[in-house]
Prior knowledge:
The chain is mainly α and 101 residues long. It has helices spanning 4-32, 38-50, 81-90; strands at residues 73-74, 79-80.
Amino acid sequence: MAKKSMIERNLKRERLGKKFESKRERLKAIIKDQDTPAEERFIAALKLAELPRNSSKTRFRNRCLVTGRPRGVYRKLKMSRIALREFGSDGKIPGLVKSSW
């Protein structure tokens, strides 16, 4: 089980990312547009730098919803490989069958 503080920190980053997503995208569009004056693009870059660092999507970490484990997480199920195996063995995931040959 992951530390509770790490799980909460990651949730906070996710909330901040959703909150500033539209503003961040607008500023990035201004910065990338070569038709806008250089001074305007520079001001947009400064405004982007003023936004909270944790509002960036790259700082968000995929974690298991069951255990909080940061590694070995299947994106589709949002579950780590270990939790997936346990739930599959208990029959809690429909359609998942342990292979044998």
